[in-house]
Design brief:
single chain; alpha/beta; seven-stranded mixed β-sheet
Amino acid sequence: MGTDMFDRDSWERRWARALREHADVVTKRPPNGYLLEVAEDLRPGLALDAGCGHGAETLWLAAHGWRVTAVDFAATALDHARSSAEAVGTDVAGRVDWVQGDLAVWTPPPARFDLVTCLYVHMAAGVTETVRRLASGVAPGGTLLLAGHRPVDPSTGDATAAAGQVQVSVDEARAALDGWEVLVGEDRPRAAPGTGVDAVVRARRLT
């Protein structure tokens, strides 16, 4: 499977088709459960949603008092997310800074964010390099949340819907986060049977 399957143009086409055919479904998708689980324990501050897509997590964070920098390289997805925020109201929309950026190269401001989250992103630059770069944006005492689809279901050996992608794995994330406190690092079967396994990592920056 070629890398062009996961480049900017490919994702623009995917988002354009999804929003053309199922905009109402996309808009109603709930925020990720891993994020909700983590955010319940945190005091709102500055957050980075790296690979924000249609913006469900960004909007939830903003609605719960966070100031969010939302980054994605797909302009189609960002435009939809921005419109969704504006539809919610100025209290939410005013808490979000939308940034078009390619996470293969985009680097956050150093030690700025209380929460950095990156969910189900194809890491074109490699897992170790991407995790370290995103982690550099976490402030001391802050939280990094990563989740990725495993390309092969470890319990069955079958390829999943993420086959061909490079998404975060627990082992690679742990190796990239030397000196961090890894609070969660595990593979979790998805709720719907047969839909694969997620690698989930939650870590706290110590210094």
